[in-house]
């Protein structure tokens, strides 16, 4: 029996004090286009604007999608459109189709590998399907699936989730998440690494990334043990491969049917290919430069060996004058203009440090291709945009991206991804440089410049480029920025993103005043006409 989308929406999300308070914070103001700055993950700044109308959402299985006004929603879309300058409104009708995915909540599968609230999730997925979202992204947590013993896997909750997604007619992007969840801003659940791995770490803490003060980061394993048999007879990359291969066998029916459209392989903290250089629990605050993370015994051994091969054994150390997590570049002897980062030793160390990152990606992706032959594979890079307008690009250097002003640090990574036929997934496409300057002018940030550099590094070697937003985005300004980056205006080669993944499904996204902007955004990504655009 068909269910009214208004009734279904209201039954799922009835008005309540907590939701109203949440939407006020995240959705802006109903009667004007006002902006507030908020300190969120990484201390970054994003703008929230008011919007004044939302359509309705849900269709029953097999029914035609329709729009319905929602309860308490009487403002005309035209007024919203007219309040935006024409210069901000580009008609994307007829532009290339870019699929849109939405990340599912972090805690959708609990630590017993059981699906949490399947009925509620089903309703939310139908809401997304009603506006023609292409699919959803889900983390498959190593710490849940292989939690208790090596090579003993439990996929039960994920199978039930995948079946629901398939029945609704959505696609899946699946992340092989070999990192812990918890400790970063935005993490609302705690999923540590597998228990048996943590037991190994208790007796051998060098399996974790380590900073200069000897503090261990249990978020993920150091790349120094990629080829060390310290995980009960297996190397780290063998553990990752066994996990991926078992997933491929377990969910063969979803691969064959095409429901699983892409596998994203986690290769570092937050699933990103980078060092964990800016860890909040170690005291980092935006816009600190972070610290080098190579002090575990395995990486230090490799650094000393590299120095010996170079013929300068005294170079077998990390920089002593690179500051601390919250330093600014000009406060350090290493990162300041004309500093040691550009000395013979500095170049040697940074080449070695960044090559460790590239080599890790090379090893893991080679095995991912064996496990997922014939499936699209992606790797995720983070957008380290603070201090981008300085000569040294210090925050990028500590993260493993050797990208000072005189060097393209992303070309080598793009070439490695090209070697394996892997797509690049990049963050922060919604951020505007001007907004960063207004909030933190001292950070010398340039997210727009960074996005342009990274996207072109990938496009230059002809690999697919996907992206996602780094921060919550509910307003038209942010969506327009994503659209402009997804489909660059007047690009002579017609280059565009291969997909976009929205971070993340939550009550605020499908709150009345926000969902109309999201629906409008999806249409733009799909190259459809948007009715509230003024005619030229």
Structural class computed from helices and strand pairing: alpha/beta
Rg, rounded, reads: 23 Å
- How are the strands ordered across the major sheet? 1-2-3-6-7-8-9-10
- For the record, the CATH architecture of one domain stands as Alpha-Beta Barrel
The CATH topology annotation of one domain reads as TIM Barrel
Unreliable parts: 1-84
The main β sheet shows up as:
8 strands, parallel, barrel
Give the overall pLDDT as a whole number.
86
Q: What count of helical segments does DSSP give?
A: 17
Give the SSE string: HHHEHEHHEHEEHHEHHEHHEHHEHEH
Number of strands: 10
Estimated share of beta-strand residues: 5-15%
The CATH class of one domain turns out to be: Alpha Beta
Q: Identify the CATH homologous superfamily of one domain.
A: Glycosidases
Overall helicity: 25-40%
Distance between the termini: 43 Å
Note down, in words, how this protein is organized.
There is one protein chain. The protein has a domain at 100-191 and 220-277 and 358-526: TIM Barrel (Alpha-Beta Barrel), CATH 3.20.20. The protein has helices at residues 5-12, 17-27, 77-82, 118-130, 142-145, 156-168, 195-203, 236-250, 252-256, 297-310, 344-371, 394-399, 411-420, 433-439, 447-460, 476-486, 512-525; strands at 100-103, 135-141, 171-177, 208-210, 216-221, 260-265, 376-381, 423-426, 465-468, 499-502. Mean pLDDT is 86; it is low at 1-84. Helix 11 packs parallel to helix 13 and helix 16 packs parallel to helix 17. By secondary structure, it is α/β, with parallel strands linked by helices. It contains 17 helices and ten strands.
């Amino acid at each position: 029996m068909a269910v009214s989308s208004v009734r279904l929406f209201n039954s799922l999300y009835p008005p309540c004090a907590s939701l109203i308070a949440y939407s006020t914070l995240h959705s802006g103001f109903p009667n004007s286009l006002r902006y507030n700055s908020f300190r969120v993950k990484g201390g970054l700044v994003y703008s929230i604007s008011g919007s004044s109308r939302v359509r309705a959402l849900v269709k029953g299985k097999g029914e035609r999608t329709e729009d319905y006004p929602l309860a308490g929603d009487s403002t005309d879309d035209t007024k919203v459109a007219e309040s935006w300058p024409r210069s901000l409104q580009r008609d994307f009708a007829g532009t290339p189709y870019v699929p849109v995915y939405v990340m599912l909540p972090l805690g959708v599968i609990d630590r017993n590998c059981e699906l949490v609230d399947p009925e509620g999730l089903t309703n939310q997925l139908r809401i997304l399907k009603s506006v023609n979202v292409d699919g959803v992204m889900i983390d498959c947590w190593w710490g849940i699936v292989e939690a208790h013993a090596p090579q003993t896997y439990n996929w039960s909750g994920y199978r039930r989730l995948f079946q629901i997604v398939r029945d609704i007619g959505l696609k899946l992007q699946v992340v092989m998440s070999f990192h812990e969840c918890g400790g970063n801003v935005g993490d609302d659940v705690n999923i540590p690494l597998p228990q048996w791995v943590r037991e190994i770490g208790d007796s051998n803490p060098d399996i974790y990334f380590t900073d200069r003060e000897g503090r261990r980061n249990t978020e993920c394993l150091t790349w120094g043990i990629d080829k060390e048999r310290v995980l009960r007879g297996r190397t780290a990359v063998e553990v990752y491969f066994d996990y991926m291969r078992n997933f491929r066998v377990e969910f063969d029916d979803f691969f064959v049917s095409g429901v699983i459209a892409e596998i994203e392989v986690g290769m570092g903290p937050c699933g990103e290919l980078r060092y964990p250089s800016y860890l909040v629990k170690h005291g980092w605050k935006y816009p600190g430069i972070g610290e080098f993370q190579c002090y575990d015994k395995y990486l230090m051994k490799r650094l000393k060996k590299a120095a010996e091969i170079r013929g300068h054994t005294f170079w077998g150390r990390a920089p002593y004058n690179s500051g601390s997590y919250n330093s600014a570049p000009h406060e350090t002897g290493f990162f300041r203009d004309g500093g040691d980062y550009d000395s013979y030793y500095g170049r040697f160390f940074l080449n070695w440090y960044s090559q460790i990152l590239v080599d890790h990606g090379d090893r893991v992706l080679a095995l991912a291709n064996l496990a997922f032959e014939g499936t699209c594979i992606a790797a995720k890079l983070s957008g380290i945009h603070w201090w981008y307008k300085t000569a040294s690009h210090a925050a990028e250097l500590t993260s493993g991206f050797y990208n000072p002003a005189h060097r393209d640090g992303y070309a080598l990574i793009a070439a490695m991804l090209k070697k394996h036929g892997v797509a690049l997934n990049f963050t922060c496409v919604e951020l505007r440089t001007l907004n960063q300057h207004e909030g933190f002018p001292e950070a010398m940030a340039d997210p727009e410049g960074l996005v342009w550099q990274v996207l072109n590094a990938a496009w230059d070697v002809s690999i697919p480029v996907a992206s996602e937003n780094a921060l919550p985005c509910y307003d038209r300004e942010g969506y327009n920025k994503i659209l402009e980056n997804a489909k660059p205006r007047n690009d002579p080669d017609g280059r565009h993103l291969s997909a976009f993944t929205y971070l993340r499904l939550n009550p605020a996204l499908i709150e009345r005043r926000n969902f109309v902007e999201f629906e409008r955004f999806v249409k733009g990504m799909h190259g459809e006409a948007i009715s509230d655009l003024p005619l030229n």
